[in-house]
Each structure stands twice: as C-alpha cells, then as structure tokens.
Amino acid sequence: MVQKKSEVLMDLALRRSIFFPSAEIYGESFSGFWDYGFYGTAVKNRIIDSWRKDLVEKEGFIEIDGAQVLPEKVFVASGHLENFNDPLVQCSKCHGLHRADSLLGAEFELTEGTPTDRFDELIEKHKIQCPKCKGKLGKTKKFNLMMGLDIGATGKLKGYLRPETCQNIFLNFSRIQKTMRKNLPFGIAQTGKCFRNEIAPRNSILRIREISQMEIEVFFNPDKINEIPNFKEVENFKVRVRLNTKKKEEEISAKDLVSKKLVSGKLVAYYLARLQQFYQGLGIPTEKLRFREVSEEERPFYAKEGWDFEVETSLGWIELVANNYRTDYDLSGHAKTSSTNLKVKEDEKEFIPHVFEISAGVDRTLYVLLELALKEGTKKGEKRLFLSLTPKTAPFIAGVFPLVNKDGLDKKAKEIYENLLEHKLSVFFDAKGSIGKRYARVDEIGVAFSLTADFDTLKDKAVTIRERDSTEQKRVLIKSLPELLWKLSTEQTTFTQIK
Amino acid sequence: MVQKKSEVLMDLALRRSIFFPSAEIYGESFSGFWDYGFYGTAVKNRIIDSWRKDLVEKEGFIEIDGAQVLPEKVFVASGHLENFNDPLVQCSKCHGLHRADSLLGAEFELTEGTPTDRFDELIEKHKIQCPKCKGKLGKTKKFNLMMGLDIGATGKLKGYLRPETCQNIFLNFSRIQKTMRKNLPFGIAQTGKCFRNEIAPRNSILRIREISQMEIEVFFNPDKINEIPNFKEVENFKVRVRLNTKKKEEEISAKDLVSKKLVSGKLVAYYLARLQQFYQGLGIPTEKLRFREVSEEERPFYAKEGWDFEVETSLGWIELVANNYRTDYDLSGHAKTSSTNLKVKEDEKEFIPHVFEISAGVDRTLYVLLELALKEGTKKGEKRLFLSLTPKTAPFIAGVFPLVNKDGLDKKAKEIYENLLEHKLSVFFDAKGSIGKRYARVDEIGVAFSLTADFDTLKDKAVTIRERDSTEQKRVLIKSLPELLWKLSTEQTTFTQIK
C-alpha cells in the first residue's frame, strides 16, 4: 500500500463509522474523545466478551463494576494527586502548550520520575523551540492528568474521575475477600472507563482522554509467589520477551523466566503466558507481539516490576497492556489513609497482600486488531479492501441477506436472522443495495461470513454461505446454521471443513 | 415479613456484596455513588444482554458507544445548562442544603418548571423549617445538576459529564444515518454511564449521582408516525396505563391507544407495547407495572408527550423508564448551535426528524427485579431466603459444585464448568463449605440451578441438578448439560419438564 496502514484504517473508520471523533459537529477543539459506531461497538463487545471468558471466568476471578467518580482521599492514598503528572511547557510567544518529553524525543530516556529542571536544562542545551511558531519555551511545570469535579451542592466535596479503573478494586478488596470467602491468590477484574487529561491527544484512539480498560488485579501472599497450582499448564509455553539488557525479542518458556530469575516468581510468568495466549487467540501473530521489560526509571511510581505487552503496527510498537507488580503499595496506602485494616491472615501470619496487575486498553486492542486485519485484494479484476478479523473478533459472525426484497425472500431472511439471534449469535440483517455491494460492505468491516437467502432457499431450505477472505461460497441447510455458526465462531470448525 | 422488603434487600446486598457504597472505607460523606460486586455485575450484564437482544437487535437498531465527556456547547444546544436544575434551599442556621420540592412534598404538584419564588412563597406560607435543626430556610436557588470539568492544559475548554446518554445519539444521528444508509424510521441505542449532581442522593441505588442507562432514540418522519410495518404484531396487546384523567390503572390495547388518541400515533403505542413485553419477559408481573401518563407541567423541558414506565415496590411506584416524544427539539437545537444541516430528505421534502425516546435505568431495573424476587421460605424447618429471579435475569444460570474436594470430584466439576463456559453459559464454580451451605448461598443470590458432581458422577457420567425455588433435585447426563441449560436459560424448557 502506498498509504500508510494507519491512514487507510482512519479513512475506513470514518467512512464506515467504526470510530470517529466525539461531538464532531462542534468542531475539533475538544480532542481526545472518540465515539464508536455500530461496528466499532460490536468489536469492542467481542473483545470484552473474550477477555471475560478467557482471563476472568476461566481463572475463577471476581468481576465488579465500580463508580468512575471517587473522592479526593482515594487519590491522596494512591499517590496520583502527587505523582500522576506530565511535564508541561508553554511557548512564551504563541502560548501553545506542549509535553516537554515529546518535544525532546525518545533518545533522552525521560521518564515519569525526571525532575522538571532536567527538562529545562535539556531544552536550553539543545535549543528546543516551540514546534508551532519557533518561539521561546517557558519553564517546565508538572501538570496533573486527573480530572476534578465538585460533588454535591456545597461545592466542598472534591471528587476525581478515576485515572485507572483499578482503584475501585483496591477499595473493595477487603469486602470482596470477606463476603466471597476467598483465599489468596485470587483476582478481581473490572472493565470500564477511566479518564486522563492528556496534554496532547493524538493518533486517533491510541492517545485519548477517555479510555476503556479491562483490568485484573491478582492478590497474593508474597511468600507464596511460586505456589501457582496451574503453572504446569504453561511452564513450557514460550513467552516472547524483550529484555532490558537485550536488543531484540526472544522466546523464553515460562519455566525458564522463573529459573533464570527474569521475573519475581511463577505467578508473574503464569499471567504473562496467559495474556500472550489470549492475544494470540484474538488473532495477533506471535512475531508481532512482545513483553517489553520496563526499566526501573521508566516504571510507574507504584511498580516494582513491569512488563509492557506491545504489538507492532505501522505506527511502531504500541503498548496494549501494562503488567505491573504493584507490591502492597496500593492496599497499604488505602489502609493508612482510611485507617482501615486491610490485612489478611494466613498460616497464623497477618500481612497486606501483594498485587500483580494486568491492565489492558480496550481502545488500543481494537485499533491493533483492525490495523493488523486490514488487507487489500482483487476480485474480478477490481480492488477490494477487507478486514481479515478472526471469527472471535469480527463485529458479527454473519450478515443475513435476502437476495432480493420480494417473493418472500425478505421475510425468510428475517426469520433466519431472528432465529440466529435467539441462539445468541452475533448476526445482523441487511437488505439494501445489490448483493455484490452488500458483500463488499461486509468485507470492509470484517464480518466473517454472509448468508444469502435466494430463490432456491424456499425450495431446498438452504442458504448460500460466503467466506469473507476467500470469497468462496457453499450451500448449507438453514436448520444446520445455529450449530455451524456456533462452531465457526468458537473456531471449532473452519469454512473449508464445511461439506 | 416484619422488616420492609427494601431493608431485607439492603441487608442482603451488603452481606453478599451485590451492591454497596463506593469507596466505603473512606466513610459516607461522598454519597450517591455505588459499586456492584460479583452478583450485581452479573445481573446488570444479564439485563443489558436482554435489552440488546429484545429491544435493539430484533428491531434492527444501531448500537453505539460514545464519550461520556462532552463539550459545553452540546449542553447549550440541548438546553441542559439553562434548564437541568433542581430547587435548592439552604438553612440559615446549620447551613444544611435541601431540595425545596422534597421539603414541601408531593401534594403541591411542584415540577421542573415551577419558578423559584413560588417555592419561597410556599415555604413561608406553610412555615417549612430546616428538617435537621428547625432553622429558618433561605431563598430558593436553581442548582444545575451537571458536573463540569476542565479539559486540556489551558484550563479554557469546559466540558461536562453527560447527564443523559442520549446526547451522543443526537450528535451522531446524521453521520450514522448517512454512513449506514438508513431510512426513517430507525433507532440508535446506547448503554453507558451518565452523571447528575443530585442534591440529596437516597434510597440506595435508586437516587444516585452516577447512573447506568440503556437508551434508544427512534428517529422518524412526523408525517408518518402511523406507518409502522410491525404494528400488527402488537395491535391487540394490552398496555397497562395510568391516564392523567383517571385514578387507576387500565389495560388498553395498542390499537385502542391510537384510535382513542391517547398517544400521538402508532409509533408511540408500538414501543410502549414492546417495552412492556420486555419487562414482563424479565419477570415483572403485569399487575405491578404501569405506564403513567406524565402531565404537561411535570414533563421534562424537551418533551411533548411522556409515559413513565413504573413498577410497584415496597418503596412505592418507581420510575424505571422515561418514554418521551422529544419532537425535533434536540436535533434542531444541535443543528442551530453547530450550524450543521441535520435534515433528512424524504418524498422530495426536507425536514428534521422527530424523536421518540425510550430511556431506561439499569440500576433501577436491577433494584426492582431483586426486590420483587425476594422470597422467604422454609426448608427442613429452617427459614431460608431466596431470590426467585427468572433464568434470564439470574446472575448465573447454574453453579457447578464438587460434592467434596477429593477423589477426582473437584477436577470433574471444574471440567464440567469449563465446558459450560465454552458454550457461553453463565455459570460459576464453588468448592467451599458443605454442599448445604453452598445451596443456601446460591439461593440467596438467585442462581437458578445447582449442578453437583458426586461419587456416582464418575460412574454414571451424570450430575444432580437442583432447582432453587422448589429445592427439588433430578439426575441429568453431563453430555446433555449444554443444551439443557441453554433451553432453561432461554425459557424454552422448565425444570419440571426434565425427565
């Protein structure tokens, strides 16, 4: 492709309303907020469904759904009010605002911990100017990324939109552990929105101010970080890592990650392996993914060990999941600030559990899946664009179409559609335009299969099933559809296996 | 029951972490925000799944997922900055804040439109004092319920958390209509959070500041409000209404609602019927529900016609869904303020579509379903509490238990559990405590069935299935479970029909 893949995807996203800027009829000044249309919402829901099944339910974890607005004290305890900052510089001429670290670039290895005067020093030394007007830049300030709110009518209660979904999990840990009678280790999961007042949102849905996350916090006894009953299931699984000390990716078994002391213990290796399996299952090829070991300087303020799960795209490596060993940082902070006992008793010993976090971005996962799935091909000499999404991540497993809108075909197709809905299959109905155009449209948005009711359907009680990638067609009986689509969507069968 | 049902439910909700105050370890000052635990989240997801299938997908509507933070201009256009207020009075002695309409009570028929000096007049005339300290009340002020935010680093961009989810739908209407090639009438749906800075949150999850909604906006040509192709399917369905002019509920067919001009047209009657069918399907008995006709004075500022869908509980009639005929109010406002053409062309005529809104509260739906399902019974002489939720709304269709945690039963039960998960059935696993205690626990949180792997299981390849309400047990083959649970959860079969 001559155009960069990210640009082709952006064109497609806008043209088919997969995702698009929020409140766009009011112009572009209010950036960093995006809406998902019909297909984007469907893919988002597919991603969350898969996460829930593979990483939450199978592990026996507890999913909760907490408030997005939390009182100020929570963020005193969590350290966000003090530490959740980006370095901000303002141009003295045009008053434009910039992130000092972005202006300086990656080669300086600037991190969350870099003091503001270090930025000023570097800006002066390297004669960095305002990128808009070449004006002189002012002093670097810390800019807190949280969004504050006044709650209640008094104006005295300060709240914040959560900057990460996990704080509810820490706040509820003790209640959940007691009322659900849970022994360590166990995980609490949550999916939902969080909010960060980014100085300069960019790259469509990659750097945004309102973010969808899927988070899991695993609570455990630090003395038992190597007691993971299911570790055997993954011990020989090759985790693709990019170590701090190495220049390239390598594949190391979970067992070896532990024995070579590259991770704090089996628990960490276990979840890295599970996460890689999950993303491979969503269709990301192994050679496009890695866990990048996060250096001490670069780690968030609460983390003792960090592995960023990244995927390679046309925009470079994109971080999809932050995996952090947060120790007892969060629970200790909340215990102290709220004067609550958050200790657990095990083997006659009382302690605050440690936490391993798997914090995944839904928006970024969606972006990466779409970009990697984007394909160009030709059909009957004409160019065609299609999204080669796996049946698991396709917005719909099938579109249901009447060949024409008469002679009972429309009614028959609708009947098939409604029956498939009853079987909780992700399908949609379209009766508009020529069948060729409908095929082209579903190809573009990644629907895995098309089902067409034609003039023979009323006689042979069958429809044509068409595969998106090969554009091949077969004839299948209507009554076999629920089971067939079920098996196709769970990848228990493939199109070529259909007889 | 001696205790009020709402109190029994609150006890249960806290004891089993169904729902509970957010950030509760930091005390109660920050009220109106609630978290959902494992079971609450599961029921919430069941409700949303049912809504998506029955009211969105079956109707062929478009679901979107938009940003919660929107720019100020949106709420200038929508009228919320001017009109979305509650009357606030402050005590001159203790400085306590109160809603003037709540202090005065229902008999005064105060509405959104009542001017503030009318409140002052009534407070003086009826000698209303501060309910906390009997102090003198100050003048009534309008208090805007929206929560404002500063966006970006300049501090000059003002945003608001949306007070209703529908604004994204109006903002995206034109884009969706064009890119999805939709003819009128069609609906856009959205589920998500919205935020209202209630002066006095109360009644647990009924009057809160962070709300989950499920909204549908149906766009139509006002000249064709009576052209609804599927109207026949509901024309004889009895809608239970409480007319403004009448003192009690009556059941009137959709057809008669139209012919007697009790609604603006067939479109309104159609969706009222569909909504009632949906809630009946969730298990709400007909005699407990009604559409209350909303009087002109009481209607929100944007509505021409309104029907509040209400359900009777121990706390009185609770509004679950606001059904409003919003005319072209919203699209016209946004067209004007954003200088965008939001007109549609049909039959050579250009016009701004009208909107009928079906705005449902998820939290309130959950509350009402749980309260109505709350039952007390006796089992072997002992009292038992159970939630008689329908299979559709139960947090899980089944719990999977090993009778004991040895002799391979735990492994077998886990295997059954994972296989059921693969079939996308809502199940959970519990191996803790005696089997009797596990049954009591699932009864309390409304799990529909229990599956127990016992010593015979390894021989006869079958498990015991136990029904929550009757506590009866039967033996079923493991291999028949996926289909059986599927049919039970979609109510295609019942426990008594199992052979």
Protein architecture, described:
With 499 residues, chain A is an alpha+beta fold. The first copy, chain A, folds into three domains: 5-81 and 146-371, BirA Bifunctional Protein, domain 2; 85-143, Herpes Virus-1; 396-497, Rossmann fold (3-Layer(aba) Sandwich), CATH 3.40.50. Chain A contains 16 helices and 26 strands. Chain A has a nine-stranded mixed β-sheet, sandwiched between helices. In chain A, β20 (374-379) and β21 form a beta hairpin. In chain A, α2 crosses α12 (362-373). The model of chain A has no long low-confidence stretch (mean pLDDT 94). The interface between A and B is large, with 80 and 82 residues.
Describe, in short, the structure shown.
With 499 residues, chain A is an alpha+beta fold. Chain A has 16 helices and 26 strands.
CATH class of the largest domain in chain A: Alpha Beta
Largest sheet of chain A, order of strands side by side?
3-10-11-19-16-15-14-12-13
User: Which architecture of the largest domain in chain A per CATH?
Assistant: 2-Layer Sandwich
- Count of helical segments of chain A? 16
Based on CA atoms alone, the radius of gyration of chain A comes out at: 25 Å
- Overall mean pLDDT of chain A stands at 94
Could you say which overall geometry of chain A the principal axes of the C-alpha atoms support? globular
Q: Quickly count the domains of chain A.
A: 3
* Percentage of residues assigned to helices of chain A: 25-40%
What share of residues are in beta strands of chain A? 25-35%
Q: Summarize the biggest pleated sheet of chain A.
A: 9 strands, mixed
The CATH homologous superfamily of the largest domain in chain A is called: Bira Bifunctional Protein, Domain 2
* CATH topological fold name of the largest domain in chain A: BirA Bifunctional Protein, domain 2
How would you classify the quaternary structure? homodimer
Give the distance, in angstroms, between the N- and C-terminal Cα atoms of chain A: 36 Å
Q: How many DSSP E strands of chain A?
A: 26
